[in-house]
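Sample intake sheet
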Amino acid sequence: MTHDVDITSYLFEHARDVILVIDAASGSIIDANHAAEAAYAYPRDELLTLKIFDLRIEPTPSVTDQMRRANTEGILFDTMHRRRDGSTFPVEVSSRGDMVSGRRVLFSIIRDVTERKRFEAEREELLAATQRALVLRDDFLMIASHELRTPVTNVSLQLQQLTRLLERGATPEQLAVVGDAALRESKRLSTLIGALLDAQVAKGQLALDRGEVDLGELVRDVTERVRSRAEQAGSAIVVEGSEIRGHWDRMRIDQVLTNLLLNAIKYGRGRPVVVSARTDGALAQIEIRDEGIGMTTESTLRIFDKFERAVPAHYGGFGLGLFIARQIVEAHEGRVEVESTPGVGSTFRVTLPRLPSKSGDVDPSCASLSSS
């Protein structure tokens, strides 16, 4: 018998987990092992003057209810315990009642689960990061497929035109014009792929490569590039405006104009599309006006959101073009707006500061723009 008592006492004192013996009726701590002294930073004689309520942070009624359940059926739960200095730590408690020398007591084994909670938090953070990465990947694939389709289609059309010219015995000069256009579009495609990959690395943060740009020239370049698409749709493109210099990311603004022009052609019902560029001192403005199907006021309020579309499903598309356009324009500290009437047409208006607001972002070669 003495041997069994010695073993029990040894296990009690040397257990790594906290062991508390608690009076089931009053909550007074009757006994505590060395692990309890270390965990709560109380000497044993002081621990034995406390009640379990002194080590808990929950209201007394909640603790009393847990004691009742532990006494009748046993209980396993997670909670927070309080140290002598007032700091708290997470614990897992296994408690059940028994009779000892005619007295009902609770035997509670308490494990500090600080490390487990930390691992769980890290796991949740990793899971959330993985989910965010998957969303970014899906967004990237959607945007990439949308943005790459246009230059690939343009190159295809130009090569088809080149083939027809060869069949007709065109002059070298005529072939060179179409060949040069295809090469320019291939270069733009390569640049765009690089920019899309950079955007993925930046996890959605749009980086701008600003430089001096003639907006009027850029409008004409984009217009010429999509003119064959317009001719296929039966739409004439009218360009209005002259030289307008500003400090922008040429490739990004090219994306905006291309998306807006292709939309005007796609939904323009074969009617003329007018592209105008003008400046009002510090601001430059581009308008693209069509006489197509138009849209409702309600649609104009959401058309720049991701995956939003204001046209019947048979027109196709992902609803990304205008979302991308808005991101680029806002990255330039500008704004893009639309006015539209169903059955009459739409006017998209892009307003851009000719210089960025932070003077440190301005290339010295563009400093003269502020006075031009």
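Comment: The longest helix spans residues 114-167. The longest strand covers residues 88-100.
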